[in-house]
Amino acid sequence: xxxxxxxxxxxxxxxxxxxxxxxxxxxxxxxxxxxxxxxxxxxxxxxxxxxxxxxxxxxxxxxxxxxxxxxxxxxxxxxxxxxxxxxxxxxxxxxxxxxxxxxxxxxxxxxxxxxxxxxxxxxxxxxxxxxxxxxxxxxxxxxxxxxxxxxxxxxxxxxxxxxxxxxxxxxxxxxxxxxxxxxxxxxxxxxxxxxxxxxxxxxxxxxxxxxxxxxxxxxxxxxxxxxxxxxxxxxxxxxxxxxxxxxxxxxxxxxxxxxxxxxxxxxxxxxxxxxxxxxxxxxxxxxxxxxxxxxxxxxxxxxxxxxxxxxxxxxxxxxxxxxxxxxxxxxxxxxxxxxxxxxxxxxxxxxxxxxxxxxxxxxxxxxxxxxxxxxxxxxxxxxxxxxxxxxxxxxxxxxxxxxxxxxxxxxxxxxxxxxxxxxxxxxxxxxxxxxxxxxxxxxxxxxxxxxxxxxxxxxxxxxxxxxxxxxxxxxxxxxxxxxxxxxxxxxxxxxxxxxxxxxxxxxxxxxxxxxxxxxxxxxxxxxxxxxxxxxxxxxxxxxxxxxxxxxxxxxxxxxxxxxxxxxxxxxxxxxxxxxxxxxxxxxxxxxxxxxxxxxxxxxxxxxxxxxxxxxxxxxxxxxxxxxxxxxxxxxxxxxxxxxxxxxxxxxxxxxxxxxxxxxxxxxxxxxxxxxxxxxxxxxxxxxxxxxxxxxxxxxxxxxxxxxxxxxxxxxxxxxxxxxxxxxxxxxxxxxxxxxxxxxxxxxxxxxxxxxxx
Length: 757
Description:
The chain is mainly α. It has 33 helices and 8 strands. It is elongated, with a radius of gyration of 39 Å. It is found in: Membrane. This is Solute carrier family 26 member 6. Residues 594-621 form a coiled coil. Keywords: Coiled coil, Membrane, Transmembrane, Transmembrane helix.
């Protein structure tokens, strides 16, 4: 049996496995030990052979001229040339074709398949044009030109570029404010001249699109893609939720068949809602019934799709059926003439020639154009990065700015309004097999067919059906109200950003609301750095780890040494608070102690001067007024003691120590500043640190710094922080190095006592 075990029997293998496991567990429990000398910054630089990194001049690379450089620039700014020649036709073409036919350019589709695309493409395109305050056909134009341009210049393979509800309502707020209905009233019957109004609004929207494109292209060329980092996720979600509420309220006039005044600016959405409530008795019953029936049909078909999804080869084309049914009923029954239901009206067939934008409008549109440019880019790059991370490729944020800018710029020339991308359409493009922007090119070609041949068939489509389609498909964005509960549990600062963004956007409108939200978000960051967490650190037993003594019950302060840490960098906004909190946490009224010390030293100085003056007067009056021997001895002794004390004050620290002056001494002799959280320093921080060194040395406490990052050390040197009294030997590689050094070198007096003149 023994031979069998030794030769590899099962019992022997089990024993070996048990021993191996025991050894591994023992190794895990074993403490590691590292022996090294204490290292201050000077010693660390010598040991590691530190040298400053010389920066490379990027402009030299930009000015290089070579074949490789030219090719790299061409592929960078025209990415289609990089991926299209390597396009795997057999593997990806079928998926891109089906995806291109399935994706809904104008709508939030509910399922894949070619019919789904036909079902969703027309009604939402018309609807988003209505959101923008434009004739419906311009929604179709905005779905053709920008999509094809993005196919050439975009770097994301999966986002679906086109009209988006938030962008459309932002455009609508601009067109309705600068071209309100009141400016186009006819004198005879006070009706609105819709032809002139629509022409003016189209001119505004196209000029706005050109200006948005110029902003985006310009920001992309100067590598300003990082601007989107100032739009946090809570801010974007709060903003889009408020925009969806505005979209919902803006569609109520189509649902109830009301004629409302055009409003813009702060509180406009509140006034619109109040006007809708005021005019509800004037609602058109036929319009309300049409919108209600269309909404119920869309919801029921969506529920059927969700329930029968596994059993159906293709999802029920709910939008297509609703579109055909609504148009057929409107035409057959005569909803417009018999019941006063407003319909889409004339949809011209064919494309329109390019038109140069009116540059005189740019001054009025510049603020709104910048806001729309930033919002559109933020939405597109957020979705692009999600899909890129999922599929393992990279999205260039600067090139995305250029691609979206060119899409809007070219689209504006062809009288389109600004576009971005939609999450739902992008998800459909991905889930139906789309691998590249070939799917987008297929979609744009299908849009072209709609524009040229099929658009005129939907002239009798009721606008109430479009409004119902928009409201039903706002469900996704309105569900973002659940963020309030999740953020309340996760991070209440993010919840505050969400709420402020939502309220500001509702009250101030989309452009001013975005500016207010970004400003509040940045101010909140500043506020949070102004009030960081300050702590006194203690050593965790038998380790070189230091943690907050208020949070770790086993952490103990090192006797004679105070370790202080801030959770944020120190700069002009919180430098004074850092210094004040340090003095408070140390348990010593440093300023009062220094003041008392200076008063006592000043009192000694005045006493010395008075005695010297009395001696001089006595010498002058000596022959005239005899002095008794006792008084002469007493005065001489007092003078000698005071003079000796003054000389000691000037030459040695004994006479000016806190103990010699009868003042209370701190219960620690060294202070260690943990500066590991510092990411940069400014001149105010440098002065504050110098003052800390000066003040604590006055009360006989030596100050050390620890854990500075190399860039911070470089900035300290550039700011001439180090001098004869504060050297790199006061800066240590870690907190533990500084503490051990402080314990080995306790101070007995101040380095630079207060001088006595």
